[in-house]
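Structure first, sequence second, as always.
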Protein backbone atom coordinates (compact mmCIF):
# COMPACT_ATOMS: atom_id res chain seq x y z
CA UNK A 1 0.00 0.00 0.00
CA UNK A 2 1.31 3.45 -0.83
CA UNK A 3 1.81 6.04 1.84
CA UNK A 4 1.21 9.78 1.34
CA UNK A 5 4.25 11.94 2.00
CA UNK A 6 5.06 15.56 2.59
CA UNK A 7 7.50 15.25 -0.31
CA UNK A 8 4.62 15.71 -2.81
CA UNK A 9 4.42 12.04 -3.65
CA UNK A 10 3.39 8.60 -2.52
CA UNK A 11 5.75 5.85 -1.39
CA UNK A 12 5.87 2.09 -1.15
CA UNK A 13 8.52 -0.27 0.24
CA UNK A 14 9.32 -3.01 -2.27
CA UNK A 15 9.99 -6.67 -1.63
CA UNK A 16 12.50 -7.08 -4.44
CA UNK A 17 16.16 -6.04 -4.75
CA UNK A 18 17.18 -2.87 -6.61
CA UNK A 19 17.96 -4.44 -9.98
CA UNK A 20 14.70 -6.36 -10.08
CA UNK A 21 12.77 -3.25 -9.00
CA UNK A 22 14.49 -1.15 -11.65
CA UNK A 23 13.27 -3.64 -14.26
CA UNK A 24 9.75 -3.99 -12.82
CA UNK A 25 8.90 -0.29 -12.49
CA UNK A 26 9.12 0.65 -16.20
CA UNK A 27 7.10 -2.45 -17.10
CA UNK A 28 4.34 -1.51 -14.63
CA UNK A 29 4.30 2.08 -15.90
CA UNK A 30 4.13 0.90 -19.51
CA UNK A 31 0.87 -0.93 -18.80
CA UNK A 32 -0.58 2.46 -17.82
CA UNK A 33 0.72 4.21 -20.95
CA UNK A 34 3.84 5.74 -19.38
CA UNK A 35 7.32 5.41 -20.78
CA UNK A 36 10.64 6.30 -19.18
CA UNK A 37 12.10 9.28 -21.06
CA UNK A 38 14.87 10.18 -18.60
CA UNK A 39 16.90 8.27 -16.06
CA UNK A 40 19.32 9.80 -13.56
CA UNK A 41 21.66 7.57 -11.57
CA UNK A 42 22.42 9.73 -8.54
CA UNK A 43 24.93 7.23 -7.17
CA UNK A 44 27.01 7.42 -10.35
CA UNK A 45 26.56 11.18 -10.65
CA UNK A 46 27.77 11.86 -7.12
CA UNK A 47 30.74 9.51 -7.62
CA UNK A 48 31.74 11.17 -10.92
CA UNK A 49 31.08 14.79 -9.96
CA UNK A 50 31.86 14.85 -6.24
CA UNK A 51 34.02 11.76 -5.73
CA UNK A 52 31.71 10.52 -2.98
CA UNK A 53 29.88 7.27 -2.36
CA UNK A 54 26.09 7.29 -2.17
CA UNK A 55 23.33 4.73 -1.90
CA UNK A 56 21.73 3.33 -5.07
CA UNK A 57 19.29 6.03 -6.10
CA UNK A 58 17.53 6.44 -9.45
CA UNK A 59 15.22 9.17 -10.63
CA UNK A 60 13.10 8.09 -13.59
CA UNK A 61 11.17 10.58 -15.70
CA UNK A 62 7.89 8.91 -16.64
CA UNK A 63 5.74 10.35 -19.40
CA UNK A 64 2.36 9.41 -20.76
CA UNK A 65 2.34 11.30 -24.09
CA UNK A 66 -1.47 11.50 -24.20
CA UNK A 67 -1.63 13.13 -20.77
CA UNK A 68 1.40 15.35 -21.45
CA UNK A 69 -0.20 16.68 -24.64
CA UNK A 70 -3.48 17.37 -22.84
CA UNK A 71 -1.67 19.21 -20.05
CA UNK A 72 0.38 21.33 -22.46
CA UNK A 73 -2.73 22.16 -24.47
CA UNK A 74 -4.34 23.45 -21.27
CA UNK A 75 -1.28 25.43 -20.18
CA UNK A 76 2.11 25.43 -21.97
CA UNK A 77 3.82 26.45 -18.71
CA UNK A 78 2.98 23.03 -17.23
CA UNK A 79 5.98 21.72 -19.15
CA UNK A 80 8.07 22.91 -16.23
CA UNK A 81 6.52 20.12 -14.16
CA UNK A 82 7.00 17.34 -16.71
CA UNK A 83 7.85 14.48 -16.72
CA UNK A 84 6.42 12.72 -13.66
CA UNK A 85 9.31 11.81 -11.38
CA UNK A 86 9.56 8.26 -10.10
CA UNK A 87 12.22 7.47 -7.50
CA UNK A 88 13.83 4.17 -6.51
CA UNK A 89 16.40 4.06 -3.74
CA UNK A 90 18.04 1.60 -1.40
CA UNK A 91 17.38 2.18 2.27
CA UNK A 92 20.06 1.73 4.92
CA UNK A 93 18.72 -1.76 5.69
CA UNK A 94 19.07 -2.80 2.01
CA UNK A 95 15.36 -2.59 1.29
CA UNK A 96 14.10 -0.60 -1.67
CA UNK A 97 11.66 2.32 -1.65
CA UNK A 98 9.57 3.36 -4.62
CA UNK A 99 8.16 6.86 -4.78
CA UNK A 100 6.03 8.57 -7.39
CA UNK A 101 5.16 12.22 -7.67
CA UNK A 102 1.60 13.18 -6.80
CA UNK A 103 0.34 15.08 -9.85
CA UNK A 104 -2.63 16.37 -7.89
CA UNK A 105 -0.20 18.17 -5.58
CA UNK A 106 1.88 19.39 -8.52
CA UNK A 107 -0.81 20.27 -11.07
CA UNK A 108 -4.15 20.32 -9.35
CA UNK A 109 -5.93 22.40 -6.80
CA UNK A 110 -6.98 25.29 -8.99
CA UNK A 111 -10.46 24.03 -9.76
CA UNK A 112 -9.71 24.22 -13.47
CA UNK A 113 -9.36 21.62 -16.21
CA UNK A 114 -5.92 20.60 -14.96
CA UNK A 115 -7.48 19.10 -11.82
CA UNK A 116 -9.35 16.38 -13.72
CA UNK A 117 -6.24 15.54 -15.72
CA UNK A 118 -4.10 15.40 -12.57
CA UNK A 119 -6.57 12.91 -11.07
CA UNK A 120 -6.31 10.70 -14.17
CA UNK A 121 -2.51 10.81 -14.11
CA UNK A 122 -2.42 10.01 -10.40
CA UNK A 123 -4.78 7.06 -10.87
CA UNK A 124 -2.47 5.63 -13.54
CA UNK A 125 0.62 6.09 -11.37
CA UNK A 126 -1.12 4.50 -8.39
CA UNK A 127 -2.17 1.48 -10.46
CA UNK A 128 1.41 1.13 -11.72
CA UNK A 129 2.78 1.35 -8.18
CA UNK A 130 0.29 -1.27 -6.99
CA UNK A 131 1.59 -3.65 -9.68
CA UNK A 132 5.22 -3.47 -8.53
CA UNK A 133 5.79 -6.06 -5.77
Amino acid sequence: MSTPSTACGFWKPLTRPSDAALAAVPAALKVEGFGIITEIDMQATFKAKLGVEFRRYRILGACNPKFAKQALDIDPQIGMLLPCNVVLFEKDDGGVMLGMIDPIEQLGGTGGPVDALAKEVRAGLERAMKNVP
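Margin note: The chain is about 40% helix and 25% strand.
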